[in-house]
């Protein structure tokens, strides 16, 4: 793993956390240039990237993530941000699977954070729950989400977070088969095309929620 | 003096009808009520003319002597007397009346061909004749005097009327310029108007407004001319040579020039080249500093009327006011823009400090806390519980901090632009929002920030006060304008200035040279519209 964050304390804390969980932290970067150099050299399985880094403290992390994806598509990327925005999430996830976009705060819930890291490394997509909640909670005129049952809304949220049917089932303590039924019903009610690919499903759900 | 004037006025009022149109054109009064004007002659010549006329009358009367009684013939001698009195006044008529009476006596009264009379009735006739002749002379002379007086008054009246008319025209012209200035017309428009008004009012051939530049040159900022001039509006000419702008620059006061002379490419030189014979110039003084000058010139040999230079100064005073107004307006706008920009800058810095400083620190602390918890030896469950509690508090603090940072300045605006930022606003609005953003690419930051705050404030108001069920937000960038329109179906009745935050928006929009309009009839929903010039770079000041 390569860890990139301009804040030393946080960078070290994150590296420690990952090391403690059994990851091998092979590099620590303070800005995007360092990060790219380290990634090209060490070719890690995962890069965690702070979105705001020197010199402009805006979206250096996003650009770095795009570059890494372009050069080394096999590298999983977890982008951490001080605040989450739909635009940035869809932009990032459009680059493909194996990408996560989380609030920095998530690292404080170690177990949850490590499971997210695990999902990204395994090629899954991860979207911050706060962002998904914001999308689901938005008030809409003739809200199509009104057609969904509370359970279905819950499942839709977990789909948007990038979880697989099995993952959702695990989360909600029900069988994968039950989840599959819910998913089919949701996609039909919202007229979203069905897909077996979890990543494409995340993109479709996010796009739907963003545009309605 | 006062009595004299009043006397004259009365005389003018009672004098023969004065044709006003004739008086205005300064022609000699020749109306039907007035006698022909006779050429002035020396007194002996007049008396000689009188003698000739008497001779003619005598010759004409002579053949009638036999058929008409003498006293009847005597009446004809009044003709030369009347003529002379009417044309040259009392005294020549008096002399001729005396001579005429004696001539009559000599030729027609017994004894003939001798002065003197035979009887008392002839003497009486002569006496009556003489007295009547004198009275006629006096009356005719008086009539002549009054006629002349009336003529003089008519001319004077004409002059006075012309002067009044000129003053009235000047006041009207000044009034037009003053209205323009008061309406806040741009200096460029004001200069053009001033040049035109002065040119036409002074019957000049060219009128120019110059702004002095630092290197003894002047820019033509207002121009009016009858013949073609060698310099266009906007030209920069040297302030050199004699007369006009050069004299104003050196002396700082209105002046008159009888001859323009200057090198080619200079103001005086250009006027000389177009054949300007004479002209006047006056300084434009803005808040104590010599800003520019105005020059009016004519190619006519008689030049501009006296006093034109001081009259010109009235116009330059108005131009100066227009400039001062525009300058203070510009300064006000620039200072507003600086204040808004400074406030935005501060908010952005605070937001960055919160995210990159406080938030990072809290996250690190939370991580450290987790590590510390892992190190707690078994058998201290209370400590673990307390650490968990602190960690939870930390997470809550982080959430709060994120919300505060978002409220202070939306980072997404700078990072991703107006559309995503407005979408986020719409999603977080308690009232459903229909959002339409028709803007290509990114806009200058100050416009994005302004549009964002306009929408943000309107949505907040719609949710808080309007009890609206839906809000439409339209943002378009076209025709050099960024238009932001927010329309809700709530109860209306909103006002700018009721502490709703609309005042701040109003200031922000005005600072960018834009307009903010609020339409909120009670029960009819609320429409907030902002128009911001896309090309405006004022906000970049500071």
Alpha carbon gyration radius of chain B? 47 Å
> What is the general shape of chain A?
globular
The total of beta strands of chain A comes to: 6
Tell me the major beta sheet of chain A: 6 strands, parallel
Give the ordered list of helices and strands of chain A: EHEHEHEHEHEHHHHH
Mean pLDDT of chain A comes to 90
- Largest interface, Cβ cutoff 8 Å: A-B, 35 and 40 residues
**Cα-to-Cα separation, first versus last residue of chain A:** 38 Å
Distance between the termini of chain B: 66 Å
Q: Within the largest sheet of chain B, what's the order of strands?
A: 3-2-1-6-5-4
General form of chain B: rod-shaped
Q: What's the story with the biggest beta sheet of chain B? A: 6 strands, antiparallel
Helix-strand topology string of chain B:
HHHHHHHHEEEHEHEEHHHHEHEEHEE
Mean pLDDT of chain B: 84
Quaternary structure of the protein: heterodimer
Q: What does the radius of gyration of chain A come to?
A: 17 Å
Please, how many helices of chain B? 16
Descriptive account of the structure:
The complex is a heterodimer of chains A (212) and B (542). With 212 residues, chain A is α/β, with parallel strands linked by helices. Helices cover 53% and strands 11% of the residues of chain A. Chain A contains ten helices and six strands; from the N terminus they run E-H-E-H-E-H-E-H-E-H-E-H-H-H-H-H. Chain A has a six-stranded parallel β-sheet with strand order 2-1-3-4-5-6, with helices on both faces. In chain A, strand 5 (99-103), helix 5 (110-121) and strand 6 form a beta-alpha-beta unit. Chain A is globular. The model of chain A has no long low-confidence stretch (mean pLDDT 90). Chain B is rod-shaped, with a radius of gyration of 47 Å. In chain B, strand 1 and strand 2 (217-225) form a beta hairpin.
């Amino acid at each position: 793993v390569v860890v990139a964050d301009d804040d030393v304390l946080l960078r070290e804390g994150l590296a420690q956390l990952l090391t403690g969980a059994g990851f091998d932290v092979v590099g620590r970067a303070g800005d995007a240039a360092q990060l790219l150099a380290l990634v090209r050299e060490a070719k890690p399985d995962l890069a965690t990237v702070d979105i705001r880094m020197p010199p402009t403290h805006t979206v250096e992390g996003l650009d770095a993530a795009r570059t890494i994806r372009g050069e080394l598509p096999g590298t999983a990327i977890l982008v951490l941000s001080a605040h989450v925005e739909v635009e940035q999430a869809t932009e990032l996830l459009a680059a493909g699977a194996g990408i996560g976009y989380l609030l920095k705060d998530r690292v404080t819930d170690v177990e949850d954070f490590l499971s997210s890291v695990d999902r990204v490394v395994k090629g899954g997509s991860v979207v911050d729950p706060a962002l998904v909640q914001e999308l689901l909670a938005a008030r809409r005129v003739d809200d199509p989400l009104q057609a969904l049952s509370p359970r279905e809304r819950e499942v839709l949220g977990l789909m948007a977070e990038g979880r697989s049917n099995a993952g959702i089932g695990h989360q909600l303590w029900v069988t994968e088969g039950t989840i599959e039924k819910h998913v089919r019903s949701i996609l039909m009610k919202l007229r979203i095309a069905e897909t077996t690919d979890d990543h494409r499903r995340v993109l479709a759900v996010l796009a739907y929620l963003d545009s309605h | 003096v006062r009595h004299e004037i009043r006397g004259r006025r009365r005389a003018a009022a009672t004098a023969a009808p004065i044709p006003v149109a004739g008086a205005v054109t300064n022609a000699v009064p020749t109306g039907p009520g007035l006698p022909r004007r006779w050429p002035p002659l020396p007194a002996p010549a007049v008396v000689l003319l009188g003698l000739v006329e008497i001779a003619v009358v005598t010759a004409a009367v002579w053949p009638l002597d036999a058929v008409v009684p003498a006293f009847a013939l005597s009446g004809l001698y009044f003709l030369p007397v009347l003529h002379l009195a009417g044309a040259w006044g009392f005294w020549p008529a008096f002399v001729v009346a005396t001579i005429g009476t004696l001539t009559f006596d000599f030729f027609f009264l017994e004894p003939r061909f001798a002065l003197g009379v035979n009887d008392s009735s002839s003497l009486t006739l002569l006496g009556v004749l003489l007295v009547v002749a004198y009275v006629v002379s006096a009356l005719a002379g008086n009539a002549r005097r009054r006629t002349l007086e009336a003529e003089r008054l008519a001319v004077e009246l004409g002059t006075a009327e012309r002067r009044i008319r000129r003053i009235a025209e000047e006041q009207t012209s000044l009034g037009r310029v003053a209205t323009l200035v008061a309406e806040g017309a741009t200096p460029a428009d004001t200069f053009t108007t001033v040049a035109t008004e002065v040119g036409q009012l002074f019957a000049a051939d060219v009128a120019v407004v110059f702004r002095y530049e630092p290197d003894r040159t002047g820019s033509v900022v207002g121009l009016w001319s009858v013949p073609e001039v060698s310099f266009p509006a906007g030209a920069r000419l040297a302030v050199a040579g004699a007369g006009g702008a050069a004299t104003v620059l050196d002396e700082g006061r209105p002046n008159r020039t009888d001859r323009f002379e200057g090198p080619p490419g200079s103001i005086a030189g250009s006027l000389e080249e177009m054949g300007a014979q004479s002209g006047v110039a006056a300084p434009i003084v803005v808040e104590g500093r010599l800003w520019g000058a105005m020059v009016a010139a004519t190619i006519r040999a008689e030049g501009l009327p006296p006093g034109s230079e001081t009259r010109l100064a009235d116009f330059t005073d108005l131009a100066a006011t227009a400039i001062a107004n525009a300058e203070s307006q510009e300064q006000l706008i620039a200072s507003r823009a600086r204040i808004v920009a400074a406030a935005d800058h501060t908010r952005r810095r605070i937001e960055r400090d919160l995210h990159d400083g406080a938030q990072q620190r809290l996250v690190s602390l939370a991580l450290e806390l987790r590590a510390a918890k892992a190190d707690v030896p078994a058998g201290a469950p209370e400590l673990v519980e307390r650490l968990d509690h602190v960690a939870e508090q930390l997470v809550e603090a982080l959430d709060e901090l994120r919300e505060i940072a978002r409220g202070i300045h939306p980072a997404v605006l700078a990072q991703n632009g107006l559309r995503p930022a407005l979408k986020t606003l719409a999603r977080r609005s308690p009232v459903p929002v229909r959002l339409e953003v028709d803007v290509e690419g990114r806009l200058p930051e100050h416009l994005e920030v302004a549009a964002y705050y306009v929408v943000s404030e309107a949505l907040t108001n719609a949710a808080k006060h309007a009890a609206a069920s839906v809000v439409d937000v339209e943002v378009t960038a076209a025709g050099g304008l960024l238009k932001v329109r927010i329309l809700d179906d709530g109860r209306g009745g909103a006002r700018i200035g009721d502490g709703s935050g609309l005042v701040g928006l109003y200031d922000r929009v005005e600072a960018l040279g834009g307009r903010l309009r609020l339409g909120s009839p009670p029960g009819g929903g609320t429409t907030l519209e902002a128009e911001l010039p896309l090309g405006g770079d004022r906000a970049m000041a500071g």
